[in-house]
C-alpha cells in the first residue's frame, strides 16, 4: 500500500488551516481538496494513530479494493493493520508522496470524486537503500448526515511489503 502523503508542507498547511480534527475538516465550509489532504495523512498506516483517522474518514458502509482483492470497512482496516505492522518493522523513514490529484466536488453536497497517483517507500531495516514504487487511488466521497465520508476506495500498488 502507499501513495498518499501530499508533501508534508502542503498537508501541514491544510491541517493548520482547518485544525487536526477530522470532524472540523469535514465541516461544510472546507473544500473537498483540503479535507482530502488532511484526511489522508490521518488514515495512512505508516504512523501511530492511523486507525483513529481511518475510523473518522471511511464510512462504515465502505466498499473497497486493494489491487484485485475486495474489502469492506472491517476487512480493509484489518489489511491496513497488517500493512502498518510491516511498514513500521521492515522499513524506516517510510514516506508517501502524491504527485498528481484530481478532485471533482459534487455540485449539491459535500461529496465528490478523487483520484490520486504517487509513490511511496522506505529504507529496509535489514539494510540497503531506499525502495520505492508507484501507486494510485480512486475514491468516492459522500455526504452522510452532514459530514464527509469516503464510501468507496480503490487502491493499487506494486510495493512489496
Question: SSE layout and pairings?
Answer:
Layout: H1 8-18, H2 22-25, H3 32-43, H4 50-57, E1 58-66, E2 69-72, H5 73-90, E3 91-105, E4 112-124, E5 131-144, E6 147-157
Structure description:
By secondary structure, the protein is an alpha+beta fold. The chain has a single domain, classed as Roll (Nuclear Transport Factor 2, Chain: A). The chain has a six-stranded mixed beta sheet.
| Strand runs, count | 6
C-alpha Rg (nearest Å): 15 Å
First-last Cα distance = 8 Å
* Major sheet size, sense and barrel closure: 6 strands, mixed
Low-confidence runs: 1-26
Q: What is the average of the pLDDT values? A: 84
Structural domain tally: 1
Q: How much β-strand is present in the residues? A: 35-45%
Quick one: overall form?
globular
CATH topology, which one? Nuclear Transport Factor 2, Chain: A
- Count of helices? 5
Kindly provide the name of the CATH class.
Alpha Beta
User: How is the largest sheet built, in terms of strand order?
Assistant: 2-1-6-5-4-3
Order of helices and strands: HHHHEEHEEEE
Alpha-beta content class: alpha+beta
Can you give me a brief rundown of this structure?
With 161 residues, the protein is α+β, with helices and mostly antiparallel strands. The protein has helices spanning 8-18, 22-25, 32-43, 50-57, 73-90; strands spanning 58-66, 69-72, 91-105, 112-124, 131-144, 147-157.
Amino acid at each position: 500500500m502507499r501513495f498518499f502523503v501530499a508533501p508534508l508542507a502542503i498537508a501541514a498547511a491544510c491541517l493548520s488551516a482547518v485544525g487536526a480534527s477530522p470532524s472540523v475538516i469535514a465541516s461544510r465550509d472546507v473544500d473537498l481538496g483540503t479535507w482530502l489532504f488532511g484526511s489522508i495523512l490521518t488514515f495512512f498506516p505508516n504512523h501511530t494513530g492511523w486507525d483513529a483517522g481511518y475510523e473518522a474518514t471511511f464510512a462504515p458502509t465502505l466498499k473497497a479494493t486493494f489491487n484485485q482483492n475486495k474489502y469492506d470497512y472491517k476487512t480493509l482496516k484489518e489489511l491496513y493493520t497488517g500493512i502498518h505492522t510491516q511498514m513500521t518493522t521492515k522499513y524506516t523513514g517510510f514516506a508517501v508522496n502524491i504527485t498528481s490529484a484530481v478532485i471533482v466536488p459534487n455540485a449539491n453536497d459535500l461529496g465528490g470524486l478523487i483520484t490520486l497517483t504517487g509513490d511511496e517507500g522506505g529504507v529496509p531495516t535489514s539494510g540497503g537503500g531506499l525502495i520505492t514504487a508507484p501507486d494510485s487511488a480512486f475514491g468516492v466521497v459522500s455526504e452522510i448526515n452532514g459530514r464527509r465520508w469516503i464510501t468507496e476506495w480503490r487502491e493499487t500498488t506494486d510495493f512489496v511489503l
